[in-house]
Design brief:
By secondary structure, chain A is of the alpha/beta class. Chain A is built from 4 helices and 8 strands. The radius of gyration of chain A is 15 Å and the shape is globular. Chain B has 2 domains: 165 residues, Aspartate/ornithine carbamoyltransferase (Rossmann fold, 3-Layer(aba) Sandwich), CATH 3.40.50; 145 residues, 3-Layer(aba) Sandwich (Rossmann fold), CATH 3.40.50.1370. Chain B has 14 helices and 9 strands.
């Protein structure tokens, strides 16, 4: 298992992701990045795809399903979403898809802002290990990562993908 | 002042759990500076929740917050109620008029009965200094106690929102000159503001008012006592006003509203000796024409309205940190 | 009848501050009195209690402690006093208890005699109902057995106080005055200073003590009255007392044991065990009180025992009743001042025996012919204050959970055993 993904491999994954997103053909999409890695990724996608609507972001830290156990951990950044997402075609963007809980939390927050027409998920890396029925609509790279390791996207520019101990 | 700092430590220590997390908020005395910074950062994120159309996050979903107000208060109680509801908590409000409290159940019996109904947090306002500490010593390990004002001792959330509001405008508070004007002797807000200012690196604090309400011995709290507002407000960056209560006239502390306003009222003229961009603050409700002139209260240097908005975010942050501590929390 | 039986305390170190005795002397008791010190006065044999290795002291005299009301004395608190080695307590008058009536005084003394655990010296009311307006029947109270009269802390105007001093003088009565001006102290629950400023509590300024002392000493001078100041708490008060004594005024004074050990800082995060009256003041005041004790300016140290139950001390600080249980802490805490604070032992012991006894007019001595009120003490024995070792019903006390040194092993009242320590000597 490499300790990092080479820049070449990363660039290829990004292109593949951009292509998959474009193929979704969402009308006037709203890109919503999930803090923090997903926001950097969303910014890149926003530029690469030439999206018109301003970039949005959310943290989902307040919507995690493990709050009752351990309380708030670390900083929760303010979310930056339009006042209403009614009828919008949303492209939710995150760096790594693993258990699916973060996406689930993000959906909970998103739906407090209204009723989207649809929500599609774009992730740079799908590492498997789902614990919830969540799947990505656009994927840059599929990677098997041992449970004791973690993938981390560093940014905002340039982007690097690192493997580290969980 | 090391003796008093030992006292502050003792007053503050009970607020942290065994893992060093904030469990109660009773006073700003003895708190770690990082705790304040964390609360401010959290409040920054929670301010955004107040701007949404669904002003709600599920942080305290399923938790019960009891507002126990032994002293009447619409403003503070309402903001705590809104704050708790915006965190999705179940909120129970109990207004206990002073007379029935002295006749019926003792304070600790009231707490014990409420606890038996699975309360996760108490927000308490009481007329006696030390009441919040007394309650905190007697609640079960998972229960958080937040002091909404105990006697003349502390009103930590008010001071936090005041400091947060200054930080919003000025960034850091270090090195600012601050004047606290009014009935400091009886003010829990002033005591908490003083503790918070010291924590955030403000060393030049003036306490301004007549000698009956600002006696010289208050200097031992770490501030300069000024009976002349021209001296007290000279060159300050922030003026924090306090309310003058009616009872002070009857108690022989000040002769009349008129004399008080004449000598200590914050008018444009009185403010002239402060810095040109000096900020004006007041915890509310304001007595127009008694401690502050309308022109100043409504003027552009006044932070009175932002204080109110920030009050909700700060109280949400406090509730989230304490009541939202998590089930794995030890004592 | 047990009173005619001989009792000998053998092998102990007899310390009697009144006579200056400090020697290995046996004590022979018969008929409720001391009939021999050292060698037996005759060949009669009786019960012998071996007290070798221990101290034999006069039973302690406590100028302030609450033990219930005249018609409802608390047996438990009296036992607690006996467990503390105390054999005589002065009982202050309280509102609605009727210590302005000779009949009630009589009932109080009879009640104490019937229980046989302690001698009670009633402080009769100075004014009717303690209302501070009309004089109480001081002459009749004197005849009923009061040597002292006082207001029990209730307010009284200067004019009536003056008349009371004059009248009391005429009946050879000592007037007990609380060292606190009621108006200046009003609403206060602790010392007025930096700590009260920080805690947001109304304080009692030193001026309250100085004002009370000024008035009292001025009137005592004018009326040539004999006065006892109860509850000195400040350096300023000590200075006034010293000056008054220096000027030859017949004034005596006491301080509670707590003010010799603690300051207002000990209140900490509103600990009700330190809500006391007189209030704990600052380190300088504590030092002045210790100095006054060492040089004899202070005549007595009292326990100021107030056995408040749970509810009265489980309120927010200002609402708590002022005072804590202390009978059993008096002796070990006065000995601490000897061990750690350099107070000479004779001074320490006289402050709880001969000193207060002189104020009451008798007792507090172990001399031939004196009443056999004795306590036997192991000054080195450590014990931890807990439910198994503390006899008072009240557990709110600064020493709760602490390990103290100095334990009363045996207390005799008129030669009768009123307390005998039951615990094994393992420091528990």
């Amino acid at each position: 298992m490499p300790s990092s993904i080479t820049d070449t491999a990363l660039a290829a994954a990004l292109e593949r992701l951009a292509g998959a997103c474009a193929a979704l053909a969402l009308p006037d999409p709203l890109l919503v990045g999930i803090e923090t890695g997903g926001v950097w990724l969303a910014r890149w996608l926003h530029g690469r795809l030439g999206v018109a609507a301003p970039l949005a972001s959310l943290d989902a830290g307040f919507y995690r399903d493990d709050l009752r156990l351990g309380g708030l951990k670390g900083q929760v950044r303010p979310s930056n979403l339009p006042p209403s997402v009614d009828g919008r075609h949303i492209l939710l963007v995150d760096d790594v898809l693993h258990t699916g809980r973060t996406v689930q939390a993000a959906l909970r927050e998103l739906f407090d802002f209204g009723r989207p027409a649809c929500v599609r998920l774009a992730v740079l890396v799908d590492r498997g290990g789902r614990e919830l029925p969540v799947c990505a609509d656009a994927v840059g790279l599929r990677l098997d990562v041992p449970p004791d390791q973690r993938l981390r996207l560093s940014g905002p520019d340039p982007l690097h993908l690192e493997l580290e101990a969980a | 002042m090391s003796e008093l700092s030992g006292l502050a430590q003792r007053l503050g220590a009970i607020q942290y759990d065994a893992q060093g997390r904030l469990r109660h908020l009773l006073t700003l005395e003895g708190l770690h500076r990082e705790t304040l910074e964390e609360l401010f950062t959290l409040a920054d994120s929670l301010v955004e929740v107040g701007a949404r159309s669904v002003k709600n996050v599920p942080l305290l979903r399923g938790k019960t917050v009891v507002l126990l107000f032994f002293e009447a208060s619409t403003r503070t109680r309402t903001t705590f109620e809104i704050a708790a509801k915006r965190l999705s908590a179940d909120v129970v409000t109990l207004d206990v008029p002073a007379s029935s409290a002295s006749k019926g159940e003792s304070l600790l019996d009231t707490i014990a009965n409420l606890q038996a109904m699975q309360t996760d947090a108490f927000v308490v306002r009481h007329a006696d200094s030390g009441a919040a500490h007394l309650i905190a010593r007697h609640v079960a390990p998972q229960v958080a106690v937040i002091n909404a004002g105990d006697g003349c001792h502390a009103h930590p959330t008010q001071a936090l929102l005041d400091l947060y509001t200054i930080r919003q405008r000025r960034g850091s508070l270090a090195g600012l000159k601050v004047a606290i004007v009014g009935d400091v002797l009886h003010s829990r807000v002033a005591r908490s503001q003083l503790a918070g200012l010291h924590l955030l690196g403000v060393s030049d604090v003036r306490l301004v008012g007549p000698a009956t309400l600002v006696p010289r011995r208050l200097e031992q709290l770490g501030a300069r006592v000024c009976h002349d507002p021209r001296e007290g407000l000279d060159g300050v960056d922030v003026v924090m006003m306090l309310r003058l209560q009616r009872e002070r006239m009857a108690g022989g502390f000040v002769p009349s509203d008129r004399e008080y306003f004449e000598l200590y009222g914050l008018t444009e003229k009185a403010l002239a000796v402060a810095k040109p961009d000096a900020l004006v603050m007041h915890p509310g409700p304001i007595n127009r024409g008694v401690e502050i002139a309308s022109a100043v209260a409504d003027g552009e240097r006044s932070l009175i309205l932002p204080q109110v908005t920030n009050g909700i975010a700060i109280r949400m942050a406090v509730l989230a940190q304490t009541a939202g501590r998590g089930a794995d929390a030890d004592v | 009848m047990s009173e005619t039986t001989r009792l000998t305390l053998r092998g102990g170190r007899l310390i009697d501050p009144a006579s200056g005795t400090d020697a290995q002397l046996d004590v022979h008791i018969e008929g409720g009195r001391i009939i021999g010190l050292g060698a037996a006065p005759d060949s009669a044999r009786g019960q012998v209690i071996d007290v070798s290795g221990h101290w034999v002291l006069p039973g302690l005299v406590d100028l302030s402690g609450q033990v219930g009301s005249p018609d409802a004395l608390s047996r438990r608190e009296l036992l607690a006093a006996a467990a503390g080695g105390i054999t005589q307590i002065a009982v202050a008058p309280r509102v609605d208890e009727g210590l302005d009536s000779p009949a009630v005084i009589g009932r109080l003394r009879d009640g104490a005699r019937a229980l046989g655990l302690l001698r009670l010296a009633p402080i009769g009311a100075l004014t009717a109902d303690l209302a501070g307006e009309q004089l109480a029947e001081l002459g009749l109270l004197r005849r009923a057995g009061c040597r002292l009269v006082g207001q029990g802390g209730q307010p009284i105007g200067a004019r009536v106080l003056r008349r009371a001093f004059e009248y009391a003088r005429g009946h050879d009565l000592t007037v007990v005055v609380d060292a606190e001006d009621a108006q200046l102290a009003a609403g206060g629950c602790m010392h007025e200073g930096a700590v009260s400023a920080q805690l947001g509590l109304t304080g009692i300024p030193v001026a309250a003590e100085v004002a009370a002392l000024s008035l009292t000493l001025a009137l005592a001078t004018t009326c040539e009255a004999r006065v006892h100041l109860h509850g000195l708490s400040s350096a300023a008060g000590v200075a006034m007392l010293r000056a008054a004594k220096g000027a030859g005024l017949p004034v005596t004074a006491d301080t509670p044991i707590w003010n010799l050990h603690h300051t207002d800082l000990d209140i900490g995060a509103y600990d009700p065990a330190f809500h006391l009256r007189p209030p704990l003041r600052e380190a300088g005041d504590r030092a002045a009180l210790r100095e006054a004790l060492a040089d004899g300016t202070l005549d007595a140290v009292c326990s100021d025992h107030r056995p408040f139950d749970g509810e009265a001390k489980r309120q927010p600080f200002a609402r708590c009743a002022a005072g804590v249980a202390g009978f059993e802490a008096l002796l070990p805490l006065i000995l601490t001042l000897v061990q750690d604070g350099g107070l000479p032992l004779p001074r320490a012991l006289s402050a709880v025996t001969s000193g207060p006894a002189a104020v009451l007019g008798d007792g507090g001595r172990l001399t031939l012919g004196a009443l056999a009120d004795v306590c036997v003490v192991d000054p080195h024995r450590a014990w931890t204050v807990a439910a198994t070792t503390w006899h008072s019903a009240a557990q709110c006390t600064p020493v709760w959970g602490q390990t103290l040194r100095g334990r009363v092993l045996l207390t005799l009242l008129g030669g009768q055993v009123v307390h005998r320590l039951q615990e094994p000597a393992d420091g528990r």
